[in-house]
Design goal:
InterPro entries: GAF, GAF-like_dom_sf, Hexapep, Hexapep_transf_CS, Hexapeptide_acetyltransf, Trimer_LpxA-like_sf. By secondary structure, the protein is α/β, with parallel strands linked by helices. It contains nine helices and 31 strands. A nine-stranded mixed beta sheet has the order 2-5-8-11-14-19-22-24-25. Strands 1-4-7-10-13-18-21 form a seven-stranded parallel beta sheet, with no helix packed on it. Strands 3-6-9-12-15-20-23 form a seven-stranded parallel beta sheet.
């Protein structure tokens, strides 16, 4: 036992020495390159092209595996300190600043599938096992905690009654909005969307759209196409028309409309995370209007004036319109050298932009672009990241975004 304890202390000492030397070095001082060189000596496995910013903390790094192209941003904490614990991050996992992933007990495995993103200041903890599937998006300040205090005996202190550790499983391609909480023993089915601020206390079937405290499924993504067909008889908001009140629409239909309003907040939280990761000044999602001839901004950070002024960009014109028409990735180092349709881009003083078409069901549904107020040449790696994000947006939320095109109705 003493020999095992001594060995553990030596491993921890090596970990502390290496992380102390290079852990706080900024990128400008070759910190990223130094960590890429030395951290394989302390981690159980570290794949290729791993990006680790300064201030990332490891506890028991020898029990932590990082796949290829993993991104760990400032002040992320990975804690596998307890006995028989493992933290496994698949290829292209990105953990944003301040997130805390902790086994918090013995015999715990926390696994994140490839392509999954965890937003700033989120917490994922054991001691129950946590398994999150591929291509999931978890927005900022979310909590996924696989334990629950037992409090059945009022005569005994809660802290002395132990905890449950049933575990949590989240399927592939799920989207958890800002501040979602997932409690112990829950399984969330593949392709589900959880509204901002929801508390998930029970299992949800695949492709659920769930909101509330406690969270309940208010719709299924598999049934959305039927609703879209119903909505197509009305003019979209993007055209600026209002539809008169329809008395035949019953209370259930109105209730379903209200349930989907938090989904816009989900997209805003996702854009906030993307803007931080890529260190850009503007991020925007534009969607085609119903007639397919124009683009309208549906969500943005930094270009809110385009929504306020109702800018409509004809397909084939301007930066975004040409991307939708071609359709292909476009990088512009100096915006003054090209035709720009939206006056907001000039007014904001944008200098460099990168944009990609949004696809769903093998057709273009819009454009996703980012911009910088300062001269910048976007790299091939950044372009690949933007294309990857756009693909995930197109696949995961295109049916939900269609619901936003529902017109407003007066009461009655």
């Amino acid at each position: 036992m003493n020999q095992q304890s001594s060995q553990r202390k030596l491993i921890r000492l090596r970990e502390l020495i290496i992380t102390t030397i290079v852990g706080s070095l900024p990128k400008i001082a070759m910190g990223t390159a130094a960590r890429r060189k030395l951290y394989p000596l302390i981690l159980r496995h570290m794949g290729k092209k791993v990006f680790i910013q300064e201030g990332v903390e490891f506890l028991s790094a020898e029990k932590i595996e990082l796949g290829n192209e993993v991104y760990l941003f400032r002040n992320v904490k990975l804690n596998a300190w307890n006995d028989n614990c493992k933290i496994l991050l698949g290829d292209r996992v990105a953990i944003d600043r301040g997130a805390d992933i902790s086994c918090a007990g013995d015999n715990c495995t926390i696994e994140l599938g490839e392509g999954t993103f965890v937003g700033p200041y989120s917490c994922i903890a054991g001691p129950g096992n946590v398994k999150i599937g591929k291509d999931c998006m978890i927005a900022a300040h979310s909590g996924i905690v696989a334990n629950n205090h037992i409090f059945a005996d009022p005569l005994q202190r809660i802290r002395d009654q132990g905890v449950t550790k049933k575990g949590i499983e989240i399927g592939d391609d799920c989207w958890l909005g800002y501040g979602v909480k997932v409690l112990d023993g829950v399984t969330i089915g593949k392709g589900s969307v959880i509204g901002a601020g929801a508390v998930v206390t029970k299992d949800l079937p695949p492709y659920s759209i769930a909101v509330g405290i406690p969270a309940r499924a208010v719709d299924s993504r598999l049934q959305i196409q039927e609703k879209v067909a119903y909505q197509q008889q009305y003019n979209p908001i993007a055209q600026g028309d209002r539809v008169p009140a329809n008395p035949s629409r019953d209370r259930t239909a109105r209730k379903n409309e209200l349930a989907h309003r938090p989904l816009e907040n989900l997209l805003q939280a996702t854009l906030e995370c993307i803007r931080h990761i890529l260190e850009v000044d503007t991020v925007a999602v534009l969607l085609q209007t119903e007639n397919g001839e124009q683009l309208a901004v549906h969500a943005t950070l930094g270009l809110e004036e385009e929504i306020e002024t109702g800018v409509r960009i004809p397909i084939g014109q301007g930066f975004a319109g040409k991307i939708a028409a071609q359709p292909e990735l476009t990088i512009v180092d100096d915006l003054s050298t090209i035709e720009v349709y939206s006056p907001v881009l000039r007014q904001k003083g944008l200098h460099s932009m990168l944009g990609v078409p949004l696809f769903a069901s093998n057709r273009v549904i819009g454009v996703f672009h980012i911009g910088s107020l300062h001269p910048r040449h976007f790299t091939n790696k950044e372009a690949q990241t933007v294309r990857y994000v756009a693909d995930r947006i197109g696949e995961a939320i295109e049916p939900v975004l269609r619901l936003w095109q529902m017109p407003d109705y007066v009461n009655g």
